[in-house]
Write a structure and sequence with these properties.
Helix content is 71%, strand content 1%. It is built from 23 helices and 2 strands. The protein has helices at 3-30, 39-56, 58-61, 66-86, 90-123, 126-136, 141-155, 161-175, 180-197, 206-213, 226-240, 262-281, 287-307, 331-334, 338-343, 347-366, 368-380, 382-392, 398-408, 414-426, 436-444, 451-456, 458-475; strands at residues 316-317, 324-325. The protein has a two-stranded antiparallel ribbon with strand order 1-2. It has a domain at 109-345. The termini are far apart. By secondary structure, the protein is an all-alpha fold.
Length: 480
Protein backbone atom coordinates (compact mmCIF):
# COMPACT_ATOMS: atom_id res chain seq x y z
CA UNK A 1 0.00 0.00 0.00
CA UNK A 2 1.53 3.35 -1.01
CA UNK A 3 1.65 6.43 1.24
CA UNK A 4 -1.27 8.14 -0.52
CA UNK A 5 -3.54 5.17 0.05
CA UNK A 6 -2.50 5.04 3.71
CA UNK A 7 -3.30 8.73 4.09
CA UNK A 8 -6.72 8.37 2.41
CA UNK A 9 -7.57 5.31 4.49
CA UNK A 10 -6.57 7.10 7.69
CA UNK A 11 -8.64 10.16 6.77
CA UNK A 12 -11.71 8.03 6.03
CA UNK A 13 -11.27 6.18 9.33
CA UNK A 14 -11.01 9.44 11.27
CA UNK A 15 -14.08 10.86 9.56
CA UNK A 16 -15.99 7.66 10.23
CA UNK A 17 -15.01 7.71 13.90
CA UNK A 18 -16.13 11.34 14.24
CA UNK A 19 -19.47 10.57 12.58
CA UNK A 20 -19.89 7.49 14.78
CA UNK A 21 -19.19 9.52 17.94
CA UNK A 22 -21.68 12.21 16.91
CA UNK A 23 -24.36 9.62 16.17
CA UNK A 24 -23.72 7.81 19.46
CA UNK A 25 -24.05 11.08 21.41
CA UNK A 26 -27.28 12.00 19.61
CA UNK A 27 -28.68 8.54 20.28
CA UNK A 28 -27.62 8.78 23.93
CA UNK A 29 -29.58 11.96 24.56
CA UNK A 30 -32.57 10.59 22.67
CA UNK A 31 -32.61 7.68 25.16
CA UNK A 32 -32.18 9.97 28.20
CA UNK A 33 -34.89 9.79 30.85
CA UNK A 34 -36.64 12.97 32.01
CA UNK A 35 -35.95 12.79 35.75
CA UNK A 36 -36.85 16.42 36.45
CA UNK A 37 -39.95 15.27 38.36
CA UNK A 38 -38.27 12.22 39.94
CA UNK A 39 -37.00 12.20 43.55
CA UNK A 40 -33.48 11.63 42.21
CA UNK A 41 -33.79 14.85 40.21
CA UNK A 42 -34.83 16.78 43.31
CA UNK A 43 -31.96 15.20 45.24
CA UNK A 44 -29.44 16.28 42.60
CA UNK A 45 -30.77 19.85 42.53
CA UNK A 46 -30.47 19.95 46.32
CA UNK A 47 -26.89 18.68 46.20
CA UNK A 48 -25.95 21.31 43.62
CA UNK A 49 -27.61 24.08 45.64
CA UNK A 50 -25.88 23.06 48.87
CA UNK A 51 -22.52 22.86 47.09
CA UNK A 52 -23.00 26.33 45.64
CA UNK A 53 -23.93 27.68 49.07
CA UNK A 54 -20.57 26.42 50.35
CA UNK A 55 -18.89 28.14 47.39
CA UNK A 56 -20.55 31.46 48.30
CA UNK A 57 -19.43 31.04 51.93
CA UNK A 58 -15.86 30.12 50.96
CA UNK A 59 -14.27 33.13 52.69
CA UNK A 60 -16.30 32.63 55.86
CA UNK A 61 -15.77 28.88 56.17
CA UNK A 62 -12.21 28.91 54.75
CA UNK A 63 -13.20 25.87 52.69
CA UNK A 64 -11.83 25.79 49.15
CA UNK A 65 -14.66 26.06 46.61
CA UNK A 66 -13.47 23.06 44.60
CA UNK A 67 -14.17 20.59 47.41
CA UNK A 68 -17.97 20.90 47.74
CA UNK A 69 -18.45 21.27 43.98
CA UNK A 70 -16.41 18.16 43.12
CA UNK A 71 -18.20 16.15 45.81
CA UNK A 72 -21.59 17.28 44.50
CA UNK A 73 -20.57 16.32 40.96
CA UNK A 74 -19.62 12.81 42.07
CA UNK A 75 -22.81 12.30 44.08
CA UNK A 76 -25.05 13.64 41.30
CA UNK A 77 -23.62 11.24 38.75
CA UNK A 78 -23.70 8.32 41.22
CA UNK A 79 -27.44 8.97 41.71
CA UNK A 80 -27.97 9.20 37.94
CA UNK A 81 -25.95 6.03 37.32
CA UNK A 82 -28.00 4.03 39.86
CA UNK A 83 -31.29 5.00 38.21
CA UNK A 84 -30.00 4.17 34.73
CA UNK A 85 -28.51 0.87 35.93
CA UNK A 86 -31.91 -0.18 37.31
CA UNK A 87 -33.39 0.64 33.89
CA UNK A 88 -30.68 -1.33 32.07
CA UNK A 89 -29.32 1.88 30.47
CA UNK A 90 -25.90 2.16 32.12
CA UNK A 91 -24.18 2.80 28.80
CA UNK A 92 -26.40 5.84 28.18
CA UNK A 93 -25.25 7.56 31.40
CA UNK A 94 -21.65 6.55 30.70
CA UNK A 95 -21.69 8.14 27.24
CA UNK A 96 -23.23 11.34 28.62
CA UNK A 97 -20.63 11.85 31.34
CA UNK A 98 -17.79 11.04 28.94
CA UNK A 99 -19.06 13.88 26.74
CA UNK A 100 -18.88 16.31 29.70
CA UNK A 101 -15.41 15.11 30.70
CA UNK A 102 -14.22 15.64 27.12
CA UNK A 103 -15.58 19.22 27.14
CA UNK A 104 -13.76 19.89 30.40
CA UNK A 105 -10.57 18.24 29.19
CA UNK A 106 -10.31 20.53 26.16
CA UNK A 107 -10.82 23.64 28.28
CA UNK A 108 -8.38 22.41 30.94
CA UNK A 109 -5.57 21.84 28.43
CA UNK A 110 -6.22 25.26 26.92
CA UNK A 111 -6.17 27.02 30.29
CA UNK A 112 -3.08 25.14 31.50
CA UNK A 113 -1.02 26.52 28.62
CA UNK A 114 -2.41 30.04 28.94
CA UNK A 115 -1.77 30.18 32.69
CA UNK A 116 1.71 28.67 32.27
CA UNK A 117 2.67 31.52 29.95
CA UNK A 118 1.21 34.14 32.31
CA UNK A 119 3.14 32.62 35.23
CA UNK A 120 6.32 32.52 33.14
CA UNK A 121 5.96 36.21 32.23
CA UNK A 122 5.35 37.03 35.88
CA UNK A 123 8.48 35.11 36.94
CA UNK A 124 10.55 36.87 34.27
CA UNK A 125 9.27 40.17 35.77
CA UNK A 126 7.34 41.35 32.73
CA UNK A 127 4.50 42.62 34.91
CA UNK A 128 6.82 44.09 37.56
CA UNK A 129 8.59 46.02 34.84
CA UNK A 130 5.29 47.36 33.47
CA UNK A 131 4.20 48.32 36.97
CA UNK A 132 7.45 50.20 37.66
CA UNK A 133 7.16 52.05 34.33
CA UNK A 134 3.66 53.21 35.23
CA UNK A 135 4.74 54.32 38.70
CA UNK A 136 7.67 56.32 37.28
CA UNK A 137 5.64 58.29 34.74
CA UNK A 138 4.80 61.08 37.16
CA UNK A 139 1.21 61.31 35.92
CA UNK A 140 -1.68 63.05 37.66
CA UNK A 141 -4.35 61.04 39.45
CA UNK A 142 -6.75 61.47 36.53
CA UNK A 143 -4.13 60.38 33.99
CA UNK A 144 -3.34 57.29 36.06
CA UNK A 145 -7.07 56.55 36.33
CA UNK A 146 -7.33 56.37 32.53
CA UNK A 147 -3.97 54.64 31.94
CA UNK A 148 -4.65 51.85 34.44
CA UNK A 149 -8.22 51.41 33.16
CA UNK A 150 -7.11 51.35 29.52
CA UNK A 151 -4.32 48.87 30.19
CA UNK A 152 -6.68 46.66 32.21
CA UNK A 153 -9.06 46.64 29.25
CA UNK A 154 -6.48 45.59 26.67
CA UNK A 155 -4.34 43.27 28.80
CA UNK A 156 -7.41 41.31 29.94
CA UNK A 157 -8.17 40.44 26.31
CA UNK A 158 -5.26 37.97 26.40
CA UNK A 159 -4.81 37.44 30.15
CA UNK A 160 -7.36 36.50 32.80
CA UNK A 161 -9.21 39.40 34.36
CA UNK A 162 -8.11 38.64 37.93
CA UNK A 163 -4.37 38.79 37.15
CA UNK A 164 -4.86 41.95 35.10
CA UNK A 165 -6.93 43.68 37.78
CA UNK A 166 -4.44 42.81 40.53
CA UNK A 167 -1.55 44.18 38.46
CA UNK A 168 -3.34 47.49 37.90
CA UNK A 169 -4.49 47.62 41.53
CA UNK A 170 -0.86 47.34 42.66
CA UNK A 171 -0.04 50.41 40.57
CA UNK A 172 -3.05 52.32 41.90
CA UNK A 173 -2.15 51.53 45.50
CA UNK A 174 1.51 52.45 45.01
CA UNK A 175 0.80 55.95 43.71
CA UNK A 176 -2.42 56.59 45.66
CA UNK A 177 -1.51 55.26 49.09
CA UNK A 178 -2.25 58.72 50.57
CA UNK A 179 -5.56 59.10 48.71
CA UNK A 180 -8.04 56.28 49.56
CA UNK A 181 -10.79 57.85 47.43
CA UNK A 182 -8.59 57.63 44.32
CA UNK A 183 -7.76 54.01 45.12
CA UNK A 184 -11.42 53.04 45.63
CA UNK A 185 -12.76 54.66 42.45
CA UNK A 186 -9.80 53.43 40.38
CA UNK A 187 -10.37 49.86 41.60
CA UNK A 188 -14.01 50.06 40.49
CA UNK A 189 -12.81 51.31 37.11
CA UNK A 190 -10.23 48.53 36.89
CA UNK A 191 -12.80 45.79 37.58
CA UNK A 192 -15.18 47.17 34.92
CA UNK A 193 -12.33 47.55 32.40
CA UNK A 194 -10.90 44.07 33.01
CA UNK A 195 -14.29 42.39 32.61
CA UNK A 196 -15.12 44.41 29.49
CA UNK A 197 -11.76 43.64 27.90
CA UNK A 198 -12.26 39.91 28.29
CA UNK A 199 -15.57 39.93 26.40
CA UNK A 200 -14.39 40.60 22.85
CA UNK A 201 -11.56 38.06 22.55
CA UNK A 202 -11.79 34.27 23.05
CA UNK A 203 -8.60 34.36 25.14
CA UNK A 204 -9.92 37.00 27.51
CA UNK A 205 -12.51 35.10 29.54
CA UNK A 206 -13.43 31.48 30.17
CA UNK A 207 -17.03 32.09 29.09
CA UNK A 208 -15.90 33.54 25.75
CA UNK A 209 -13.46 30.67 25.36
CA UNK A 210 -16.22 28.11 25.91
CA UNK A 211 -18.39 29.64 23.18
CA UNK A 212 -15.45 29.64 20.75
CA UNK A 213 -14.39 26.08 21.51
CA UNK A 214 -17.96 24.89 20.95
CA UNK A 215 -17.62 26.19 17.39
CA UNK A 216 -20.70 28.40 17.70
CA UNK A 217 -18.87 31.59 16.69
CA UNK A 218 -15.72 31.98 14.61
CA UNK A 219 -12.63 33.46 16.27
CA UNK A 220 -12.59 36.77 14.40
CA UNK A 221 -16.34 37.27 14.79
CA UNK A 222 -15.87 37.88 18.51
CA UNK A 223 -14.07 41.13 17.68
CA UNK A 224 -17.42 42.55 16.58
CA UNK A 225 -17.92 42.97 20.33
CA UNK A 226 -14.93 45.32 20.57
CA UNK A 227 -16.96 48.56 20.26
CA UNK A 228 -19.75 47.38 22.64
CA UNK A 229 -17.05 46.37 25.15
CA UNK A 230 -15.38 49.79 24.82
CA UNK A 231 -18.75 51.48 25.41
CA UNK A 232 -19.33 49.28 28.46
CA UNK A 233 -16.01 50.51 29.88
CA UNK A 234 -16.08 54.15 28.77
CA UNK A 235 -19.52 55.22 30.02
CA UNK A 236 -18.89 54.54 33.73
CA UNK A 237 -15.23 55.62 33.42
CA UNK A 238 -16.24 58.98 31.93
CA UNK A 239 -18.61 59.63 34.84
CA UNK A 240 -16.19 58.39 37.53
CA UNK A 241 -13.51 60.62 36.02
CA UNK A 242 -15.03 63.64 37.79
CA UNK A 243 -14.67 61.92 41.17
CA UNK A 244 -10.90 61.68 40.73
CA UNK A 245 -8.84 64.56 42.21
CA UNK A 246 -7.01 66.81 39.75
CA UNK A 247 -3.85 66.82 41.87
CA UNK A 248 -0.64 64.88 41.25
CA UNK A 249 0.71 62.22 43.61
CA UNK A 250 4.16 62.43 45.18
CA UNK A 251 6.85 61.14 42.79
CA UNK A 252 8.05 57.57 43.20
CA UNK A 253 11.26 56.23 41.74
CA UNK A 254 11.33 52.52 41.06
CA UNK A 255 13.50 50.39 38.81
CA UNK A 256 12.90 46.79 37.85
CA UNK A 257 14.94 44.84 35.33
CA UNK A 258 13.23 41.99 33.49
CA UNK A 259 14.99 38.65 33.57
CA UNK A 260 16.65 37.09 30.57
CA UNK A 261 14.21 35.86 27.93
CA UNK A 262 11.23 37.93 29.13
CA UNK A 263 10.53 39.62 25.79
CA UNK A 264 10.97 36.39 23.87
CA UNK A 265 8.43 34.63 26.11
CA UNK A 266 5.90 37.38 25.32
CA UNK A 267 6.53 36.78 21.60
CA UNK A 268 6.16 33.00 22.08
CA UNK A 269 2.84 33.54 23.84
CA UNK A 270 1.54 35.58 20.90
CA UNK A 271 2.81 32.85 18.56
CA UNK A 272 0.97 30.26 20.67
CA UNK A 273 -2.26 32.25 20.36
CA UNK A 274 -1.77 32.36 16.58
CA UNK A 275 -1.13 28.59 16.54
CA UNK A 276 -4.35 27.87 18.46
CA UNK A 277 -6.39 30.09 16.15
CA UNK A 278 -4.86 28.41 13.06
CA UNK A 279 -5.58 24.93 14.42
CA UNK A 280 -9.23 25.82 15.12
CA UNK A 281 -10.05 27.92 12.07
CA UNK A 282 -7.90 26.47 9.28
CA UNK A 283 -7.38 22.84 10.29
CA UNK A 284 -10.64 22.28 12.22
CA UNK A 285 -8.64 20.85 15.11
CA UNK A 286 -9.43 21.70 18.74
CA UNK A 287 -7.82 24.96 19.86
CA UNK A 288 -6.49 23.08 22.89
CA UNK A 289 -4.27 21.01 20.57
CA UNK A 290 -2.80 24.21 19.15
CA UNK A 291 -2.22 25.55 22.67
CA UNK A 292 -0.42 22.35 23.66
CA UNK A 293 1.76 22.74 20.57
CA UNK A 294 2.47 26.27 21.79
CA UNK A 295 3.51 24.90 25.18
CA UNK A 296 6.35 23.11 23.44
CA UNK A 297 7.64 26.52 22.31
CA UNK A 298 7.95 27.50 25.96
CA UNK A 299 9.46 24.14 26.91
CA UNK A 300 12.13 24.31 24.20
CA UNK A 301 12.93 27.93 25.03
CA UNK A 302 13.10 26.94 28.70
CA UNK A 303 15.65 24.27 27.77
CA UNK A 304 17.69 26.93 25.94
CA UNK A 305 17.60 29.18 29.02
CA UNK A 306 18.56 26.22 31.18
CA UNK A 307 21.63 25.15 29.21
CA UNK A 308 22.83 28.75 28.81
CA UNK A 309 22.02 29.71 32.42
CA UNK A 310 24.33 31.96 34.39
CA UNK A 311 23.91 33.51 37.80
CA UNK A 312 22.49 37.01 37.43
CA UNK A 313 22.76 39.77 40.03
CA UNK A 314 19.36 41.15 40.87
CA UNK A 315 19.85 44.90 41.09
CA UNK A 316 17.33 47.70 41.34
CA UNK A 317 14.62 49.09 43.57
CA UNK A 318 11.49 47.39 44.74
CA UNK A 319 8.63 49.16 42.86
CA UNK A 320 6.40 49.29 45.93
CA UNK A 321 8.74 49.96 48.87
CA UNK A 322 11.45 51.82 46.99
CA UNK A 323 14.12 49.80 48.85
CA UNK A 324 17.24 48.81 46.97
CA UNK A 325 17.60 45.14 46.08
CA UNK A 326 21.07 43.91 45.26
CA UNK A 327 23.34 40.92 45.50
CA UNK A 328 23.84 37.73 43.52
CA UNK A 329 20.70 35.69 43.21
CA UNK A 330 20.62 32.00 43.97
CA UNK A 331 21.03 29.96 40.78
CA UNK A 332 17.94 27.83 41.37
CA UNK A 333 15.77 30.89 41.95
CA UNK A 334 16.54 32.26 38.49
CA UNK A 335 16.85 29.09 36.44
CA UNK A 336 13.81 28.77 34.21
CA UNK A 337 11.62 25.70 34.75
CA UNK A 338 8.36 25.26 32.81
CA UNK A 339 7.03 22.66 35.24
CA UNK A 340 7.52 25.05 38.13
CA UNK A 341 5.07 27.41 36.40
CA UNK A 342 2.62 24.55 35.81
CA UNK A 343 2.75 23.68 39.53
CA UNK A 344 1.94 27.30 40.48
CA UNK A 345 -1.45 27.24 38.76
CA UNK A 346 -4.66 28.01 40.63
CA UNK A 347 -5.67 24.36 40.80
CA UNK A 348 -8.56 25.10 43.14
CA UNK A 349 -10.23 27.18 40.41
CA UNK A 350 -9.54 24.57 37.73
CA UNK A 351 -10.97 21.77 39.89
CA UNK A 352 -13.96 23.96 40.80
CA UNK A 353 -14.52 24.32 37.08
CA UNK A 354 -14.46 20.51 36.75
CA UNK A 355 -17.17 20.23 39.40
CA UNK A 356 -19.27 22.91 37.71
CA UNK A 357 -19.06 21.23 34.30
CA UNK A 358 -20.15 17.84 35.67
CA UNK A 359 -22.88 19.30 37.92
CA UNK A 360 -24.39 21.39 35.14
CA UNK A 361 -23.97 18.46 32.74
CA UNK A 362 -25.92 16.34 35.24
CA UNK A 363 -28.69 18.97 35.45
CA UNK A 364 -28.88 18.92 31.66
CA UNK A 365 -29.02 15.12 31.53
CA UNK A 366 -31.78 15.08 34.16
CA UNK A 367 -33.90 17.34 31.94
CA UNK A 368 -33.89 20.56 33.96
CA UNK A 369 -32.03 22.69 31.45
CA UNK A 370 -34.43 21.74 28.69
CA UNK A 371 -37.31 23.09 30.78
CA UNK A 372 -35.32 26.19 31.72
CA UNK A 373 -34.42 26.79 28.09
CA UNK A 374 -38.08 26.55 27.12
CA UNK A 375 -38.97 29.24 29.65
CA UNK A 376 -36.07 31.63 28.99
CA UNK A 377 -35.79 31.38 25.23
CA UNK A 378 -39.33 30.25 24.49
CA UNK A 379 -41.55 32.37 26.71
CA UNK A 380 -39.28 35.35 27.52
CA UNK A 381 -37.47 35.47 24.18
CA UNK A 382 -33.77 35.49 23.35
CA UNK A 383 -33.05 39.18 23.95
CA UNK A 384 -34.64 39.51 27.44
CA UNK A 385 -33.17 36.13 28.42
CA UNK A 386 -29.65 37.06 27.34
CA UNK A 387 -29.83 40.44 29.11
CA UNK A 388 -31.07 38.64 32.25
CA UNK A 389 -28.06 36.30 32.03
CA UNK A 390 -25.76 39.28 32.62
CA UNK A 391 -27.70 40.35 35.70
CA UNK A 392 -27.60 36.79 37.04
CA UNK A 393 -23.83 36.64 36.49
CA UNK A 394 -23.46 39.56 38.94
CA UNK A 395 -24.72 37.19 41.66
CA UNK A 396 -23.62 33.77 40.38
CA UNK A 397 -20.29 32.92 38.79
CA UNK A 398 -20.58 33.34 35.01
CA UNK A 399 -18.89 29.99 34.31
CA UNK A 400 -21.80 27.76 35.40
CA UNK A 401 -24.25 30.25 33.86
CA UNK A 402 -22.57 30.10 30.46
CA UNK A 403 -22.02 26.35 30.62
CA UNK A 404 -25.74 25.91 31.32
CA UNK A 405 -26.61 28.00 28.27
CA UNK A 406 -24.23 25.98 26.11
CA UNK A 407 -25.80 22.79 27.45
CA UNK A 408 -29.27 24.12 26.57
CA UNK A 409 -27.97 25.17 23.14
CA UNK A 410 -31.05 27.27 22.27
CA UNK A 411 -31.67 28.11 18.64
CA UNK A 412 -30.33 31.66 18.36
CA UNK A 413 -28.87 33.93 15.72
CA UNK A 414 -25.17 34.75 15.73
CA UNK A 415 -26.03 38.20 17.07
CA UNK A 416 -27.81 36.68 20.07
CA UNK A 417 -24.87 34.36 20.82
CA UNK A 418 -22.60 37.39 20.76
CA UNK A 419 -25.06 39.21 23.03
CA UNK A 420 -25.02 36.48 25.68
CA UNK A 421 -21.23 36.31 25.43
CA UNK A 422 -21.10 40.05 26.09
CA UNK A 423 -23.60 40.10 28.94
CA UNK A 424 -22.16 37.05 30.71
CA UNK A 425 -18.71 38.63 30.50
CA UNK A 426 -19.50 42.18 31.63
CA UNK A 427 -22.51 41.49 33.88
CA UNK A 428 -20.18 40.52 36.71
CA UNK A 429 -19.10 44.18 36.94
CA UNK A 430 -22.48 45.19 38.37
CA UNK A 431 -21.37 43.99 41.83
CA UNK A 432 -17.92 43.57 43.32
CA UNK A 433 -18.66 39.90 44.06
CA UNK A 434 -19.77 39.26 40.48
CA UNK A 435 -16.30 38.50 39.13
CA UNK A 436 -12.97 37.10 40.24
CA UNK A 437 -11.40 40.51 39.59
CA UNK A 438 -13.72 42.24 42.05
CA UNK A 439 -13.29 39.61 44.76
CA UNK A 440 -9.49 39.70 44.40
CA UNK A 441 -9.31 43.50 44.63
CA UNK A 442 -11.45 43.61 47.76
CA UNK A 443 -8.73 41.56 49.45
CA UNK A 444 -5.84 43.45 47.87
CA UNK A 445 -7.02 47.04 48.42
CA UNK A 446 -7.28 46.60 52.21
CA UNK A 447 -10.47 48.55 52.88
CA UNK A 448 -10.09 51.22 50.20
CA UNK A 449 -12.19 49.14 47.80
CA UNK A 450 -15.16 47.34 49.36
CA UNK A 451 -18.53 45.91 48.37
CA UNK A 452 -20.19 49.23 49.32
CA UNK A 453 -17.59 51.26 47.39
CA UNK A 454 -18.49 49.32 44.26
CA UNK A 455 -22.23 49.35 45.01
CA UNK A 456 -22.16 53.15 45.13
CA UNK A 457 -21.22 53.17 41.45
CA UNK A 458 -23.57 50.32 40.43
CA UNK A 459 -26.11 52.64 38.68
CA UNK A 460 -23.30 54.14 36.59
CA UNK A 461 -21.95 50.67 35.75
CA UNK A 462 -25.49 49.63 34.77
CA UNK A 463 -25.55 52.53 32.30
CA UNK A 464 -22.42 51.09 30.73
CA UNK A 465 -23.97 47.61 30.74
CA UNK A 466 -27.04 48.70 28.80
CA UNK A 467 -24.97 51.10 26.68
CA UNK A 468 -22.82 48.19 25.53
CA UNK A 469 -25.92 46.16 24.70
CA UNK A 470 -27.34 49.08 22.70
CA UNK A 471 -24.04 49.50 20.84
CA UNK A 472 -24.10 45.79 19.95
CA UNK A 473 -27.60 46.02 18.47
CA UNK A 474 -26.61 49.16 16.58
CA UNK A 475 -23.23 47.96 15.29
CA UNK A 476 -24.13 44.34 14.55
CA UNK A 477 -27.77 44.59 13.44
CA UNK A 478 -27.10 42.37 10.39
CA UNK A 479 -26.24 39.42 12.69
CA UNK A 480 -29.71 39.25 14.30
Amino acid sequence: MNELNKFLLGSLAAAGLMLFSTNVLAETFSQALDLSGHWVGYLCVGLFAIAYLFVVLEEVLELRKSKPMMLAAALIWVAIALVYKNQGLSSVAETAIRHDVLDYGELLLFLIVSIAYINAMEERRVFDSLRAWLVNRGSSYRQLFWVTGGLAFFISSVSNNMTTAMLMCAVVMAVGKDNPKFVGVSCVNTVVAANAGGAFCPFGDITTLMVWQKGIIEFWTFFKLFVPSVVNFLIPAAIMHFAIPKTQPAPIHAKVMTRRGAKRIVVLFLLTVLTAVTFQNSLQLPAAVGMMAGLTYLQLFGYFLHVTHRDEPELGLDPMSGEEVKGSADADSLRFDVFHHLARMEWDTLLFFYGVVLCVGGMNFLGYLQHLSGFLYGELGATPANILVGVISALIDNIPVMFAILAMHPEMSEGQWLLVTLTAGVGGSLLSVGSAAGVALMGQAKGAYTFLTHLKWAPVIALGYFGGIGAHFLMNAELF
